[in-house]
From TrEMBL:
GO CC field: cytosol
GO annotation terms (biological process): chemotaxis; signal transduction
Keywords, sorted A to Z: Cytoplasm
Listed Gene3D superfamilies: CheA-289, Domain 4 (2.40.50.180), SH3 Domains (2.30.30.40)
Pfam families: CheW
Protein species of origin: Pseudomonas antarctica
Name of the featured protein: Chemotaxis protein CheW
Keyword Cytoplasm in annotation: yes
Subcellular location: Cytoplasm
Parts of the chain that traverse the membrane: none
Any coiled-coil regions, as ranges: none
Main location (coarse class): cytoplasm
InterPro entries: CheW, CheW-like_dom_sf, CheW-lke_dom
Keyword Cytoplasm (UniProt): yes
Length: 233
């Protein structure tokens, strides 16, 4: 589990760095602080306050401003000597998907998602409070064009999770129905999956492979992260 510990630490650093310019009054005088804010008498909770909503809007504005000053970044190449590649396996509805752990910051418990007025895109669900920091929350179902009505679960106890992904201009959160875990996949298996024919040509899909008796759709993280950036700007 050392890799997950490292991802957890990276997630804390990214989240704090991305929000350090925003006054997080909810952590000082709000419900997560000493509760001395005079507005609490009327709003009851910080998420109902216009100051909280304005901070969330400024966070999304920063995504757009940073994007204007950056050039598109190519996906990091994997060293030729690497024999395996790590994928996180998760479920959305009835479909199992895999994403490279190099673009994953953390797997976190499910948190409330606070919607915002004047949503910028259909994929933008709102913001989530991750350890006191506001992080944009996106729908992978919407981005990937999946069937939103499907919600079948595998056997046993199922616990929805949130994936914190390292997007180009800061972390974003995506809720998922279930996380299976991190798997080291033989590079030759991935190479074969990439050349598997028409299935691999679907948008955001780098390949399709069999793992643990399931058909796993391996996501193209470069295309996915590009779509994430567009949805925030």
């Amino acid at each position: 589990m050392n890799s997950l510990d490292a991802l957890h630490t990276a997630g804390r650093d990214l989240t704090l760095a991305d929000t350090q310019a925003i006054d997080d009054c909810w952590n000082r005088i709000g419900v997560h602080g000493d509760k001395s804010c005079p507005l609490l008498a009327d709003t009851i909770h910080c998420r109902n306050c216009s100051v909280y909503s304005a901070a969330a809007t400024r966070l999304l504005d920063r995504y757009a401003l940073q994007q204007d000053d950056r050039r598109p970044q190519a996906a990091t190449e994997v060293d030729n000597d690497v024999v395996t590649r790590s994928l996180l396996m998760f479920r959305l509805g009835e479909e199992w998907l895999g994403i490279a752990t190099r673009c994953l910051v953390e797997v976190a418990p499910l948190q409330p998602i606070h919607s915002l007025p004047h949503q910028r895109s259909r994929a933008l669900l709102g913001v989530a409070n991750v350890r006191g920091a506001l992080v944009a929350c996106l729908s992978l179902v919407e981005l990937l064009g999946l069937d939103a009505t499907s919600n079948s679960a595998s056997g046993g106890r199922v616990m929805p999770r949130m994936l914190i992904i390292a997007a180009q201009d800061g972390p974003v959160v995506v809720p998922v129905d279930e996380v299976d875990g991190i798997h080291a996949i033989d590079e030759r298996t991935l190479t074969a999956a990439s050349a598997s024919g028409s299935q691999a040509s679907a948008r955001f899909t780098q390949g399709v492979l069999q793992l643990k008796g399931r058909s796993l759709r391996w996501l193209d993280e470069a295309q996915l992260l590009s779509a994430v950036t567009r949805s925030l700007t």
